[in-house]
Design a protein that fits this description.
This protein has one domain. It contains 4 helices and 7 strands. It has about 130 residues and is an alpha+beta fold. The strands form 3 sheets. The chain has a 3-stranded antiparallel beta sheet. The chain has a two-stranded antiparallel ribbon with strand order 4-5. Strands 6-7 form a two-stranded antiparallel ribbon.
Length: about 130
Amino acid sequence: MFSITSKGNFNHLEKYLKKSLGNDYMSILEKYGQRGVQALAAATPLLSGETASSWDYRIVKQKDGALAIEWINTNINNYVNIAIILQYGHGTRNGGYVAGRDYINPALQPIFDELAESAWKEVTKT
């Protein structure tokens, strides 16, 4: 399984979410989780389309009580997660190497930026 997480201080985001939805911030996380899945599916290099259609997300509660969105790709072939080798590259049977292509970070960056901007605007309202 392949997951992507982001760590840091989410105090401003939590304040925004609590204020905007009165402690029901799961709907906002669901919104951005789904948008991330769509962005990843659109950005995934296509051969068969199986990897692109294998993206999903889950919202997990971490040990410190914070919530996180994890994006997951379930396309596994011979115990190898295909999304990972597309991202980072891989060796071939004949001793060659196929370079990776950074498609995950550019796909998710606009989602992160929009979430951060939205939260910042909300917490800085006067």
